[in-house]
Amino acid sequence: MSNYLVAVTDSGFPDLEQEKRILKPLGFTFATGQCKTAEEVAELCRDADAVLTQWAPVTAEAIEKFTKCKVIVRYGIGVDNVDLEAAKRRDIPVVNVPDYAVQEVADHTLSLMLAIVRKIPQVVQRVRDGIWEISPCRPIIGLQEKTIGVAGFGNIAKAVLHRAQAFGMKAIGYDPFVNEEAFARLGVEKVDWDTLLSRSDILTVHMPLTKETKHVFNENAFKTMKSTSFLVNTSRGGTIDTEALINALRNGEIAGAALDVLEQEPIAPDSPLLKMDNSIVTSHCAWYSESSLLRLQEYAALEIKRLFSGEPLLHVVNGVGK
């Protein structure tokens, strides 16, 4: 049996039994850490044949010190913590796990939408305070015939639209990388960026964080949106300029925002977003359910198994070995 080493730079899982069940029969042993710095990543992963990482900084400096690494797998969808170009220079494929929590994130997106539109947290608090009103926190809008807009048209956005259409909502979407036919197949109208902003009653964000998408929701974007519209973000916090959002909420440029992701996490205890009635913040937990947790670990380990069993990798994000 071959002897391989897999280094787990860090993780928030209760244990690594899923990974061990899949990889130990192939001859893998495990080196585990909770790396916070590139130096710690370099030290742990120096002689690893494969790397599993969640949040640790897998930087160019760390990757340069890897001597045997054949694959880097990110636990999750985004790969912000891995230097993709540095891995490419070393001919190391970087792989993500895009399909482990599609339904959970879609569920959470709809939950946030309903909570912010129906003003659920405020109503609950009023009832707890002894205030019983049958038309509280006016105005509250109905969803039927309202327009939901998606920024990005990947698997999660599609799952969100599938749910939203059950509420009788009209759907529009923006994604420069997807053709009109793909939108039309789901009954969604493809629109340009300004149209997405100006027509959406609820605008939900499903974009990766790139140079092009950083702060794409900025002062100008909020001025283009309807004053009655709501913004929901379960993708990447950096797509929204936080200060511009706070100002837009204060000035009534949009009606509300519901966020599971933020530029700075955890959110600062004194953030105005925590004090505003027209803002809801959850703790980057849209991905989580007990079953998605297990799927994430399993799917990540299966990518390593594929490579070392001579099978093609499913989800390479830096173009190596495709």
TrEMBL record:
<dbReference type="InterPro" id="IPR036291">
    <property type="entry name" value="NAD(P)-bd_dom_sf"/>
</dbReference>
<dbReference type="InterPro" id="IPR029753">
    <property type="entry name" value="D-isomer_DH_CS"/>
</dbReference>
<dbReference type="Pfam" id="PF00389">
    <property type="entry name" value="2-Hacid_dh"/>
</dbReference>
<dbReference type="InterPro" id="IPR050418">
    <property type="entry name" value="D-iso_2-hydroxyacid_DH_PdxB"/>
</dbReference>
<dbReference type="GO" id="GO:0016616">
    <property type="term" value="F:oxidoreductase activity, acting on the CH-OH group of donors, NAD or NADP as acceptor"/>
</dbReference>
<comment type="similarity">
    <text>Belongs to the D-isomer specific 2-hydroxyacid dehydrogenase family.</text>
</comment>
<protein>
    <submittedName>
        <fullName>C-terminal binding protein</fullName>
    </submittedName>
</protein>
<feature type="domain" description="D-isomer specific 2-hydroxyacid dehydrogenase NAD-binding">
    <location>
        <begin position="110"/>
        <end position="286"/>
    </location>
</feature>
<feature type="domain" description="D-isomer specific 2-hydroxyacid dehydrogenase catalytic">
    <location>
        <begin position="29"/>
        <end position="318"/>
    </location>
</feature>
<dbReference type="InterPro" id="IPR043322">
    <property type="entry name" value="CtBP"/>
</dbReference>
<dbReference type="InterPro" id="IPR006139">
    <property type="entry name" value="D-isomer_2_OHA_DH_cat_dom"/>
</dbReference>
<dbReference type="InterPro" id="IPR006140">
    <property type="entry name" value="D-isomer_DH_NAD-bd"/>
</dbReference>
<dbReference type="Pfam" id="PF02826">
    <property type="entry name" value="2-Hacid_dh_C"/>
</dbReference>
<keyword id="KW-0520">NAD</keyword>
<dbReference type="GO" id="GO:0051287">
    <property type="term" value="F:NAD binding"/>
</dbReference>
<keyword id="KW-0560">Oxidoreductase</keyword>
<dbReference type="GO" id="GO:0003714">
    <property type="term" value="F:transcription corepressor activity"/>
</dbReference>
